[in-house]
């Protein structure tokens, strides 16, 4: 898949932002006043900023409000509603904490749940897609949630919580990669099933329907090369998990904590890029781009 | 209205005959022509005379080579447009309700004035049946020519999709696949009409008729008696052959 | 809530019905207009050709009439030839320039004008113009296209495949297709294949490449290119040996029973010149057509101790030979012997065991009345795959022999002619080249030679025509040799010309063999610095590659902006059971300073006061082409259009009707006259058909004839080569004529001189969605085929270590190209191919110079030469069929190897040409309605 950069930025930033909001909502750390202001500013910048960025790739951002209407069926709609609710609730909570020095616990808890819910709904947008077998798994919400929670904890300065959560997220990430690599194969979708011609013999794409490019090829058919992706996985894993964990075990300093958070952010962005770039949409089968001939080099 | 209707009154769709499609792309272009001029925004083209031309099409014809275990490889032309799935994931994912499945005939449509161009429906479609129009920023897809099939400004016989009307080989059939007695349902039943990617659970309405078995002539035809038995076993010289030929044949009275 | 949508929007303000012109198929179209603009084009359901369907090109017509590549005004060359530097001029200047060049030639040396046209549909008109100009040098593109198919058909059975006949789609049960990717009758063939497959009838495709029609064929015969003749003759062998042939049909309708003079090899004739058969009743010779005669296939005739045997004996003698046994030809053809037998057996089974009767009484030319018509539901079609080889004429003849011995021509279920065919050789003119300055040529340029006496050579045997048509090099070149014109004019062989006038043919690019050589020829200069071909006038509608090589451009309209006439005198739109013709008319007005070319020709003729176009006092007869279409009469009462003559009620023959064009427009742009039921089959022999055809004006008297299994005109040429008569071939051609003008079909390998080391055949195919070079200017179509890989069979891919996307160097004895490759399994294992005419020259067609057509697309034409490699005899041997001069495009042999350093672009690359029209816009959002 070849999603707009805005989608990668959005999911990365807002995941972290809502993760941070979750911790703030349940009072970890229990901040008020100026300190609260800084924390909430970061959290809202990430969450709301990400949300804003996500409208960049829309064909008609001016109609974005319509996206709140289909909560009964659409995870994207649910995400929008959830995000707005989370932001509103946490906004209220933040006003209390920053300006009134008040911690309205019930509001905070509701906001925290909604924030987590937002991360979950985001993840479900992808997880629901059978057309992308790599995503179509419970590991997708697990990954988004664990990343959101651990990243949020890092940002919230909750080193004690962050460390085990990072470990969990790292495990989920490894599992997602490992399962993901065989997901297309396990999905049962093949050129044979896509064309219905498998009964006759081995199917191979011959002439494409158009020699030029099109939306489908640009959006779905691009896949990252295997060697390239191996390298990026190592980098993503190191930055998102290994480096922050190592830094967490060093004596605490704000600089180190900041560095850990930045490394994590970069790692998650990298992982998120891979999340999209490695995803094989089954439409690629029609273009013969999902079943490399034995011995053929992956396209990079 | 993004939830799918529990059921639709009819299931209008196409039956595409892979045994007769010659891959001429007529359906591709007539679709482009009709839908550029009609329903919704025109199907635009970017860099149409340049180095990287691309454009929006609602119907595309692929081709595949299939190598059977024995015998020559076969080539199959494969037209593909929206299958108007019963369980259309493209509809349920749509956040705005722009994508919907019509209750009366099952046609899956995009209401362009509601579409925000998020692209999610195209992600959800396993078949690549949706294309975002780069100029208009809205999602485009096969409308099953909803503005033709009921169009009272067209003569009755022309109330079929543009691609069906134009197909020179007659490889495209249009009708109600919800009615087991319709021509299309019968044709599909007779010829083993199949679903594409059934494992995706989309329950496509459109059916594909598989190619008939090929390259069987040597197995089917007994080349010896009586079809090609030589007239004169010993050849018997030319005159012998001629005499026998003349006496033996349909025109033997001459 | 589901949105409410308008399911009944207004479709258009008005529908204008005319004829498509994205190819020669000539389908009827409904042009939907909104606000005076073309909004949508669909097929016309009432039209006899397409019955409502339309191909991709036809549907994309809207992108053709609005293409940015359309020429805008007459152009005068200002840079060197080939640069594309032009200046727009007025029509006044353009016409006077042309008249200035041409008038002098007309008065003094008309042969110094060579006027050749591409695949236009007004050949009866352009030839009329050329004839009245007085030049012998006129032809259309048939010579490089498929003259083998046309000539073999007419010489054998008075009609050809091409678009002049069709299988009886309603009845046929076995359809066998040789060497067709698309063909002229494109929509009817698709409709026919669809129709018979829906019935479960069998389709057999004989083609080295399995795409398109061959992909849907039930059985694919991936034959070795160039060997179809052998395969066909082998089936004839098997069928004859088994006696599975239609002797009744052969006896009645063919020259199989006609006696061959044992001394001369000519047919025995009576005093009235009628070929003789032995009548079974009397046992005596009798003219073939005497009422009541029952021709005997086996009886011989002894005169003075010499035994004259019927044609059938000669055939049996040749084809029963074990040389034609399947086992003997299998390896050569690349078809296993059991397969050859199986196909032959299936042909016989369907022809004879599935024969059926139609209850329709008819009377034959001998006066015998038949209660029924016997159907033999086997039909064939073939085109350039067998004809564009140097052995193509004899191969096409062989195929006709095959269908004739099965008794499947002009019978229910078989192959049927479309009017004006059937039409025997005798009803066609002979060729003429007698030039008389200031006066018309002494007769029509093109025709069907009956023997050496009809050759167009001078007393020394030197060709009269610039293309050397009707010379000993290719005596039966009935369509001329357009592919030799530029080469011969450059060489001054047989003579130099002054003006080359071309119409609708992209000769500096895809329609020439040896394109780079042709570019050189067109720009070659004499010692004095002048061009060897001093003047070139060209009419195109678009900014093609050829435009850059002309001195004066006469820009044509597009097909929706002019009058055209698809005439019975030309290549009409008839069907097997109807005569039909059609028009085009300006459904929109040009928005540029362009004019219909035919009208321009009339203006030129009027300005030169050409005979035929002007009365004795110089008064023009016609003001423009529309005027000509209505008012011209070839013979009294017979004009370009057969419909609505007189006061609108006369068909075929009738007075001029000033309202004729309006009547055509009201009728949907065409006219159909159905053939009466009893006349629909057995046309060459059916009295009812013959009378109907005379009534319609197709000919002046009934012309029944026999199918010519044995071709007497060929024997006459062969006899001359054997030393008879006062016109004999020059020594260097004697053997060739003796061998190749064999009156009975035979197979020979094509000339392989110079091919050592080049073992792979390289072919092209027409893409169904592209028309030669000019599909690429169409924004929609070029997205489908914007580049063309070389398709290479799996075995050769492996052998050369190639994989998809690699580049290969492809070499022929003549040239080299470097191009991207793609693997294909459903392909003859020793054949490579690509789509025809996708490759474009930079700067042409209003495309960006970096267009994929120009950077990745390529032409095979750079590898093909119009001449064979030198044989060391100092002579120029054309790469053509020795009988007809048909260009042997598909004899090309190459070698391929992986290109170690893949180039950035397909090689060779040519300097860009200047575009006289700029390039197209960056985006299209085409919608004319609101
Ligand atoms: N869409 C479209 N239609 C067209 C045209 C076009 O450009 N585009 N051009 C028109 C013109 S001018 C013409 S002349 C006709 C030509 O129509 P076709 O005769 O169909 O011409 P080609 O595309 O050259 O196809 C030749 C076929 O012969 C096969 N072939 C080559 N060599 C051999 C052989 O030795 N044996 C056998 N059995 N097969 C062989 C090739 O594989 C190919 O399939 O099409 C007309 N129609
Ligand atoms: N390698 C290879 N080469 C081949 C063949 C092949 O099979 N293989 N096939 C050969 C055959 S059979 C043929 S027929 C030729 C065809 O080759 P061409 O006859 O050159 O065919 P086109 O490319 O259609 O070029 C016709 C020209 O007519 C112009 N034109 C289009 N419409 C109009 C109009 O309305 N008025 C005027 N005045 N001009 C117009 C176009 O712009 C174009 O420049 O190619 C031959 N070349
Ligand atoms: S128009 Fe018909 S034959 Fe042509 S590609 Fe489409 S479905 Fe196939
Ligand atoms: S084919 Fe794709 S776009 Fe059409 S209904 Fe099915 S899922 Fe939706
Ligand atoms: S692109 Fe339009 S139709 Fe598709 S999901 Fe988004 S809003 Fe709905
Ligand atoms: S039904 Fe209409 S919209 Fe759909 S593919 Fe056919 S022509 Fe296009
Ligand atoms: S076959 Fe296509 S291009 Fe040719 S005349 Fe018919 S519709 Fe036009
Ligand atoms: Mo041609």
TrEMBL record, chain A:
Keywords: Membrane, Transmembrane, Transmembrane helix. Gene3D superfamilies: Formate dehydrogenase/DMSO reductase domain. Pfam families: DmsC (PF04976). GO terms for biological process: anaerobic electron transport chain. The chain crosses the membrane at residues 7-28, 34-59, 80-101, 107-126, 161-177, 232-250. It comes from the Bacteria. GO terms for molecular function: dimethyl sulfoxide reductase activity. GO terms for cellular component: dimethyl sulfoxide reductase complex; plasma membrane. This is DMSO reductase anchor subunit.
Automatic annotation (TrEMBL), chain B:
It holds the Pfam family Fer4_11. Residues 12-42, 73-105, 106-135 form the 4Fe-4S ferredoxin-type domain. It comes from the Bacteria. One of its GO terms (molecular function) is metal ion binding. Signal peptide: none annotated. The keyword 4Fe-4S applies. SUPFAM superfamilies: 4Fe-4S ferredoxins. Keywords: 4Fe-4S, Iron, Iron-sulfur, Metal-binding. This is Fe-S-cluster-containing dehydrogenase component.
Automatic annotation (TrEMBL), chain C:
PROSITE patterns: 4FE4S_MOW_BIS_MGD. Residues 13-69 form the 4Fe-4S Mo/W bis-MGD-type domain. Pfam families: Molybdop_Fe4S4, Molybdopterin, Molydop_binding. Keywords: 4Fe-4S, Iron, Iron-sulfur, Metal-binding, Oxidoreductase. It comes from Cribrihabitans marinus. GO terms for cellular component: cell envelope. GO terms for molecular function: 4 iron, 4 sulfur cluster binding; metal ion binding; molybdopterin cofactor binding; oxidoreductase activity. It is found in: Cell envelope. This is Anaerobic selenocysteine-containing dehydrogenase. Belongs to the prokaryotic molybdopterin-containing oxidoreductase family. Residues 422-458, 901-930 are annotated as: Disordered. Its cofactor is [4Fe-4S] cluster. Coiled coil: none annotated. Gene3D superfamilies: 2.40.40.20, 3.30.200.210, 3.40.50.740, Dimethylsulfoxide Reductase, domain 2 (3.40.228.10).
